[in-house]
UniProtKB/TrEMBL annotation:
Annotated protein name in UniProt: GTPase HflX
Naturally occurring in which organism (per UniProt): Thiohalocapsa halophila
Compartments where located: Cytoplasm
Role played: GTPase that associates with the 50S ribosomal subunit and may have a role during protein synthesis or ribosome biogenesis.
Gene transcribed to yield this protein: hflX
Domain of life: Bacteria
Length: 451
């Protein structure tokens, strides 16, 4: 038992190389995370271990070293750059007599501070409650007692069971509210699909300059700062493209290594903008120091949310800061053997390379439209309704057998996701579809949309 301090963010940071070496920028990233949460680093404990210690994670000897440092620097907080089990977190708190926060708890705290929109606050609260639900016991032994006495008899619950029940009710309520918001987002996506407005989403590691690039492309004026997770709430803006129709550009939350699963689950509705996009701009810090690791971390999260098959252009940002790194700082466009754009090198701060990026986006979107003809039977009414929600309708004529002769258009990326689907609907579409050229004129499109 100990009294938790009501204020003070003097923190000792703990980072171990468990079963291997740490990335070169790992310590700097941990310090940036702590500063983003409002903590001040007053001490650092490092080391190596083959496997985590089941009791303290860091081992008994390192735990005693940590205890001595906490007392010496009068720290009120210990931040461990690893995931701790509830038992490990509780054991460390009892030994150190101060708060202990693991990496997941730290990131959740940053998100809680940065959330501004109603949806963002709901998502963060849901993630925090899921994280908290396994950590209710902490150091408070009275939670194991049953309530008793006059006016309190009856439920037969311990305080811990009561709190878990209340947490479960709150989590269910948050899920219900987020489900309603997800329906609204889905309606907006379907409206854009019906108007054949393509969506381009910015993705990338946190603090690589996505918001700066977003402002440069759209003049949106969203917050941009040299700090981790400066952007939390997603923003959508119109993106004018040269020689092509306009698109919608989405700025999304940055990813990071060991992103808490609670956050990925809670932000699934927001990340749906990424999964349903027609093109991803994967923004990368052009500095080669930890570029490969950051790219892999982002690809891991994209695979987790089902966006690994979405076409993408790699955008190497911050070329203005490449002096002395051995990398060519010239803004340029790299193409593959087929002439398709693979990488764009630019500086979102100075604006160099922005025009080639816009041309590349327009080029990828303009050539990525599929036209298909489908002969639907009378039993395909649900499929026809789905096509009206998710595709451009070029022709919709009834047949003599009670079905429909339809011609549809769909962005290439969206069509590939349908073709790769394993559900009955996608298999039925693939069985019926036959490629057809785009029509010279589409007089019935307005009527089809009116339906």
């Amino acid at each position: 038992m100990f009294e938790r301090p009501t204020s003070g963010e003097r923190a000792v940071l703990v980072q171990l190389a468990v079963g291997g070496e740490l990335p070169g920028d790992a310590r700097e990233e941990l310090q940036q995370l702590a500063e983003a949460a409002g903590a001040t680093m007053v001490g650092f404990v490092g080391g190596t271990r083959a496997t985590p210690d089941p009791k303290y994670f860091v081992g008994s000897g390192k735990a005693e070293e940590l205890k001595a440092m906490v007392a010496a620097v009068e720290a009120e907080l210990v931040i461990v750059d690893h995931g701790l089990s509830p038992a490990q977190e509780r054991n460390l708190e009892r030994l150190l007599q101060c708060r202990v926060v693991d990496r997941s708890g730290l990131i959740l705290d940053i998100f809680a501070q940065r959330a501004r929109s109603f949806e963002g606050k709901l998502q963060v609260e849901l993630a925090q409650l899921r994280h908290l639900s396994t950590r209710l016991v902490r150091g408070w032994t009275h939670l194991e007692r049953q309530k008793g006495g006059i006016g309190l008899r009856g439920p037969g619950e311990t305080q811990l069971e009561t709190d878990r029940r209340l947490l479960g009710k709150r989590i269910a309520l948050l899920k219900e509210r987020l489900a309603r918001i997800e329906v609204q987002r889905d309606q907006g996506r379907r409206a854009r699909e019906r108007r054949e407005v393509p969506t381009v989403a910015l993705v990338g590691y946190t603090n690589v300059g996505k918001s700066t690039l977003f402002n440069r492309l759209t003049a949106a004026g969203v917050l941009q700062a040299d700090q981790l997770f400066a952007t939390l709430d997603p923003t959508l803006r119109r993106l004018p493209l040269p020689g092509a129709q306009d698109a919608v550009l989405a700025d999304t939350v940055g990813f990071i290594s060991q992103l808490p699963h609670e956050l990925v689950a809670a932000f699934r509705a927001t990340l749906e903008e990424t999964r349903s996009a027609d093109l991803l701009l994967h923004v990368v810090d052009a500095d080669p120091l930890e570029r490969a690791r950051h790219i892999q971390d982002v690809e891991t999260v994209l695979a987790e949310i089902g966006a690994e098959e979405v076409p993408r252009i790699m955008v190497y940002n911050k070329v203005d800061a490449l002096d002395g790194t051995g990398v060519d700082p010239t803004p340029r466009v790299d193409r593959d053997a087929d002439g398709r754009v693979e990488r764009v090198w630019l500086s979102a701060v100075t604006g160099e390379g922005i025009e080639p990026l816009l041309v590349a986006i327009g080029e990828r979107l303009a050539t990525a439209t599929v036209h298909q003809r489908l002969l639907l039977g009378p039993e395909d009414g649900a499929l026809r309704a789905w096509l009206f929600r998710h595709a451009g309708i070029e022709q919709d004529s009834p047949t003599d057998l009670g079905g429909w002769d339809m011609r549809i258009s769909m962005p290439q990326a969206r069509w590939e996701r349908v073709a790769q689907g394993k559900d009955a609907l996608s298999q039925r579409i693939c069985a019926l579809a036959a490629p057809c050229p785009p029509p010279a004129s589409r007089p019935d499109r307005a009527l089809a949309r009116a339906d």
